[in-house]
Structures are given as structure tokens and as C-alpha cells.
Please model this.
Amino acid sequence: MKKSLIPAVLILVSITALALFTSQPRSSTASVAQASPSDAPGLAALFPDGLTDAEGNPIPLDTLQNKVIGVYFSAHWCGPCRRFTPELVKYREANRDHFEVVFVSSDRTEDAWRNYMTQAGMPWPAVHWNSDAANALKSRYEIRGIPSVIMLRDDGSTITREGRRMVMQGTAAEQLLSARVEMEEYMCDSCDKVHTRAKLVYDR
Model:
């Protein structure tokens, strides 16, 4: 009798597990990150060792207040980085009242890092080369390739991971300050199914 109940019990367990799985909300991945209290660590937490210029002079964190912060992951040995950096310099100058860059280097030596900043005319501060803070930022934002720009608010919350595209499109930093995230449905060309993604909406 007990043996005859086993198949029925297994079927019931399988149906229950399937129901629980299908009732869970589907997660969606998007390069635009939605801000939440846990995603606003503050600048002191992101840059615990402070910032420096190419000569080693300390740069106070309050220079980043009330601005969009583009955390720029780059290196001199990277050809696409060397081509993109002049575009970022132009964008920064055009948006200097509302935007600042923080450079996180992947250069192989400290001299290469400082020389890159000087030769490229980077007017912005940097995280100390090969520091724990620099490595933590690469890990936090899951940097797999460079150049990459992560746009942040001055509370440390993420606006978008597609900062490079925003720069090349000339999206005004003042717009990014007022940006909010909304979710939208879209039809996927690859699988002909409806998915959900995040998009930036500007109030200004």
C-alpha cells in the first residue's frame, strides 16, 4: 500500500515545485540600473582612500557634489581607450558644471598610469593606482572590458552603466541628474517573446 502511494506523492511534489517556480517574478537584466537605498553607498564608501591628480595631490570628494560622476575604467595600453579619452575630455568640458570624471586605471605600472593622465590631458581626479579601492570598484561594477564609464549620482547610486554611449551621444549631464528609471516591455527580435527592460526617462 505504501509503495503505491510513492508515485502519487512524487507527482504532487513536482506540481507544487513547478507552481512555486512559475509564480516567482522574472528578473530582467538591463544596462540601466535602478537606484535603491542599498545602491547609494555614498562617495566616501566608494572612494575610501580619497582621490588624487596626476601629480599625487589630493582632491577633496566635495568637488563631486551636485554632479553626475562618470567612473572611467581605462588604460593607456588599450587602443579603444586612447581613442575614447579625447571624446570624454570634450564631454567633460562641455558639461563641467554638472559632470566630473573619476579615473580608475588598469595600467600595468604606476608610472604608466600617471603618464597616461598627463599625456591625455585628463583634467579630472583618479582613484589611487592598483589600490584596494580601485579593485573594489572594478568588482562592484563587474568590469569585464574597457573603456567603460559608469554614471553615478553624488550619493553613489547608479544612473546607468552605459556612460560611454551617453558621452558619444552627447546626452547632457544636467539631463542625467534628473533621470529616473522606468520599466518597459519590448518584443525580442531573437526569440519573439515579450521581455522587460529598464530605460532612462528625463524630467528636464
The two ends are 72 Å apart (CA to CA).
